[in-house]
Amino acid sequence: MHRWRFLFVAAAVLFLAVGYWNATRMPVVRRGTVWVNGWSANKPPVRIVLISDIHVAGPDMPPSRVARIVDQINALKPDLVLIAGDLVSARLLTTRRYSFDEALAPLTALHAPRIAVLGNHDHRRGAADARRALAAAHIPLLENRIVRFRGLTIVGLDDMYTGIPDARLFAKPLPQPVLLLTHSPEVVRRLPPGERLVLAGHTHCGQVVIPGVGALVSLRKGRRTVACGIVHRNGRNFVVTGGLGASIVPIRYGATPDLWLLTFQPKPSHL
């Protein structure tokens, strides 16, 4: 009996250790090209980095780790960095909770302009504090607002579950191409149909994905998969990042941290 207890404890420790190592790896850089109709053939490409779910908290995501990821992003030389929410963590299992100011400090070293929306953890930790810290860090918050950037229309929507996303932003036609930046991709269920690319996070690509079983976080909802990567669903196009940090517990399996480098460029005539 003691032998089986020892094996069980050893297996549990190994599982947690490997999961923690997976969760604290440098994010994988995933790349995609978006061909834009109607742009002049002479228009230079626009390179956008999408990150989400930083979840700054101890021990797995201290500000020092965010600083290393910022160096990784700067090396990609993007024109714009989009942050799809969950800047901090509201989880219970943590060795330290960081303030919004502490969490955002490393992001001020990004060389490119940046735009953020709030996620569910940000709202739970205090949306007012998040707004103040973002303003102090000179990171624009696109909370139910629209901006134009180098020919792109970027719409920022509040979080679906803890905020108030304003679907009225799509009441009138918007200049194409339209990028919808939001935390959860599920917000599209509240929006009218229309041509737009949805950039989101929230799903962590499952965070803990068991082969043959699926993502554990989705099983309680009766689903075996979660939105992740480039997704085409019901006539809509999504890019859903797996995020940088971890939620609930600081472990990952089958869903490594990632970020996206998206290149928007004129569509060639042969495509």
Automatic annotation (TrEMBL):
Locate the Calcineurin-like phosphoesterase domain: which residues? 47-205
Q: Which residues form the signal peptide?
A: none
The cross-references to Pfam families, in alphabetical order and at most eight, read: Metallophos (PF00149)
Tell me what this protein is called.
Metallophosphoesterase
